[in-house]
Amino acid sequence: MATMADVARSAGVSVATVSHVLNDTRPVLPRTRQAVLDAIEELGYTPNSLARSLVTSRTRSIGLAVSAISNPYFTEILQGVEAAALEHGYGLLIADPHDDPGHERKVVQLLHERRVDGMIVAPSADPRDLVAYLGRHRVPAVFLDRVLDVPEGEGAPRFDQVCAESAEPTTRLATHLSGLGHRRIGLVAGRPGLSTTRERITGYRHGLAAAGLPYDERLLVHGDSEAAGGERAAAALLSLAVPPTALVTANNAMTIGALRALRDRGLSVPGDLALCCFDDFAWADLFSPRLTAVTQPSRELGAQAVRLLLERLAAPDRPARTLRLPCTFVHRTSCGCPEQPRQASAKAHERSLP
Fold this sequence. Notes:
Blueprint: H1 4-11, H2 15-23, H3 30-43, H4 49-56, E1 61-65, H5 72-87, E2 91-95, H6 101-113, E3 118-121, H7 128-136, E4 141-144, E5 160-164, H8 167-179, E6 185-189, H9 195-210, E7 220-222, H10 227-238, E8 246-249, H11 252-264, E9 274-278, E10 292-295, H12 298-314, E11 322-325, E12 327-330, H13 342-349, E13 350-353
Parallel strand pairs: 1-2, 1-3, 3-4, 4-5, 5-11, 6-7, 6-8, 8-9, 9-10
Antiparallel strand pairs: 10-12, 12-13
């Protein structure tokens, strides 16, 4: 097995220079760097990651803590994180906090004990222990998908955040349904306490107000961001004395649950109830009818989270930033609109939302 000394001899440089190239601890002339890299390739040299981490105090690893990894939305985020991390030479350690504050605190501590260089976390509805731990141990971290109102000031932790727009796209769904003549529009909302839930409720209420419709609290039921909860919430709405004629579901898992509730009652979409959903997914276009949805830039969210974290590692004292990425409104037929030729209408039916 080739050693660092073998690489140094082959490249005609010192062992220290090889170390600087591998660990990025000192500038090296481009020609010299390339000679070292060529020698590494020729000899098949594999750096000792543990030894390198002792020299640099870096493990070139990122901890990722997101719940419901089986959810297609978070799976695509994970793919975005992984691709961006690998591009910059970082590996991933992944944990699922299960949206439970106590478990969240434990998995974040475990990731920290594995000496990750920083973390990307989708925080739970009650992240107080999480924020306290990250702040106390000065762990570089980026909050993903769900944002927090964390004040920045003297002694306050600095956390970068990246998420998709939630309020305006939900307003668009509600106004689209009202524009089709619906006056009783229900919302299957997510888990209470999450920023995504608050913002989508705000967007829903803005949509009702823009259409001149009153807000009726009976038409808003929380589905807890999961399929079973979405099914229960939709069933509760359908059981009202005057049920809604249209429904907005606030994530893809709850959309599946709502469709189950409709199926169990022998109701059709959009014949008996129009449906628009937040979150697109691969098979939404295969349903009959095809689902009108808001698409989130999930892979880009993951990639941007990595970028923010690497910038934080490079400049620990820079001001914290929150990035909000636009969504896309995908107009299909579950809302009650007629089917249109796919190719001719593709550009007209996909609109970026702020």
